[in-house]
């Protein structure tokens, strides 16, 4: 999402929103499928009805937990880019992250594991001047987002830019 115009009252202007990309849950989904197949295929080993029911109960517990985790991250993990700072929110189950002001930004890195790089997602790690590090997981086109943050950092350090 982009947009907004400059304000004279010093308020930050929305420029872009990013968030957790659901494609990052694919490795967990693959693992859950394999575990479900193994549990359900191995249930014939059990002679007792109750023992045979256990694999079904485990599979019934895996899927809601996995889907709940993926949906929680997709809904609550937001990376809000303004003209002055990056605002990061990981939802109510995490501590609040203070704003990352562009003039105080020391370093921006991005990367991805082999599967996520093929899916077009990755992580961005931001280091502030005070040494505080914030890692943004599952960012779509992480290298471009990191380059955008790096250009903001360099523009903020120019005299008369902010």
Jot down its keywords:
elongated, 3-stranded antiparallel β-sheet, 41% helix, 4-stranded antiparallel β-sheet, alpha+beta, PH-domain like, disordered N terminus, 2 domains, single chain, 162 residues
Architecture blueprint of SSEs:
Blueprint: E1 14-19, H1 26-41, H2 49-76, E2 78-82, E3 85-89, E4 100-101, E5 105-111, H3 114-119, E6 121-128, E7 133-140, H4 142-157
Antiparallel strand pairs: 1-2, 2-3, 3-4, 5-6, 6-7
Task: Quickly describe the structure.
With 162 residues, the chain is α+β, with helices and mostly antiparallel strands. The protein has helices spanning 26-41, 49-76, 114-119, 142-157; strands spanning 14-19, 78-82, 85-89, 100-101, 105-111, 121-128, 133-140.
